[in-house]
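Entry:
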Amino acid sequence: GGWTDANVVDVLTVANQGEVDYSQLGVDKATNASVKEFAAMMVKDHGTMLTAVKDLASRLNVTPATNDKANDLKEENTKDIDDLNAKTGNDFDKEFMDEQIDMHQETLDLLSDLDGRTTNADLKAAIAEARPKVQAHLDQAKGIKDKLN
């Protein structure tokens, strides 16, 4: 079916919230200092992005509305967190960074997809603003993972 701006806002919210929740585990359980530091940065950066999405939604007077994509993302986040929780030590750190690479790659694809699903200039601007941040996170995650191996 068609997407509304309320769907777009919800998917952006779920993606950022998932990243915050996942990264919080890294802050708590990572053993490698670079991994822990990256996790803390993700909690902070995606927390900021989450707030920006919520502010934008209230400014546009849009109440986030869930759809299949948002629900799939939520399920995926829960599964990723469960998988990560089962690991410790170096295995945890590697799994965490692998998943961060996957998540940020997925988010880049998602942002392109969402951009095509809205005509709202403010939403498009928010998506455009998020893209280089997510790309930078992806590049950093790859750099950290390479050092772990």
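The chain has a mean pLDDT of 96.
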